[in-house]
Amino acid sequence: MLVGDRPQLPVTPAIEDPPIAHVMPDLNPGSSTTPSATGCAEKSTQPLHIQHIWIVTGPAGCGKSTVGKALQQELGVPFLEGDDYHPQLNKEKMGRGTPLTDEDRWDWLVVLRKAAIDALAPSSERNSPAGVVVACSALKQKYRDVMRVAAYGSPSVQIHFIYLRLDEDVLMERVRARQQHYMKSGMVRSQLATLEEPKDEWDVITINVQGSAEEVQQRVHDAVTAKLAEYV
Ligand SMILES: Nc1ncnc2c1ncn2[C@@H]1O[C@H](COP(=O)(O)OP(=O)(O)O)[C@@H](O)[C@H]1O
Ligand SMILES: O=C(O)[C@H](O)[C@@H](O)[C@H](O)[C@H](O)COP(=O)(O)O
Q1: What is the C-alpha separation between 51 and 159, in angstroms, rounded?
Q2: Which residues lie below 8 Å from residue 70, measured CB to CB, with a gap of 6+?
Q3: Gap from CA of 179 to ligand 1 centroid (Å)
Q4: Was domain 49-229 assigned CATH 2.60.40.10?
Q5: 170-184 tens-digit pLDDT
Q6: Which residue lies with its CA nearest to atom 17 of ligand 1?
Q7: pLDDT tens per residue, range 94-126
Q8: Which atom of ligand 2 is nearest to the CA of 60?
């Protein structure tokens, strides 16, 4: 299987990560429903209680936090701001204008993934929100693969990336205008150099985020609504 391809169940994790795999909750014990090859739940007498992890991705300034918070309101689920999970050293490094390395990002991604899993309510809590929204740049495919592990082995958990696409000049404008953030506009170029735009990754929804916040939110709403309709 190529990385980024839709996994066929049963899934053998492509990334070895025993500690997380062992603590992953069985979110739907006893369900007779299994996901189909298209990832949509097949109808059965006992509906599968799907829990969706929505990861809002893209380079600094594309609108991850803005879109993520709006989506949180709309879906009524928890929101995790990826920046809050960086160790202080990473924030200081970025604040000095030095891009992070793969090594710097690794622990951050693993911690954020665990937080996303923890934020999903157990399946016994039927009235609890069915999911979580996470803002995380996830610039490279291998970073998205780290996050994908959150859904491996749990058929009731579905992961979706919402990639916010924006040209460099508008990214620059937005980061320059943003106040009191460690990430300055000088980092935009390195973010774009690091970025591997998702192509042919089955679980990625790409949204053009030119335009006002309201226009963008409407596009995100339409895309998420269409995606959720696949699970009805
Ligand atoms: N559609 C938009 N139009 C104009 N400004 C926006 C839009 N979306 C977000 N912003 C602003 O751009 C800046 C970067 O947005 P933010 O959500 O912090 O991006 P990220 O979390 O991806 O770095 C913020 O000041 C935000 O208010
Ligand atoms: O709001 C922002 O400006 C971004 O979210 C920013 O903080 C950054 O994208 C990552 O959190 C850093 O990690 P990466 O270098 O992996 O993007």
Answers
A1: 9
A2: 213, 217, 220
A3: 11
A4: no
A5: 999 999 999 888 898
A6: 63
A7: 999 999 999 999 999 999 999 999 998 655 555
A8: 3
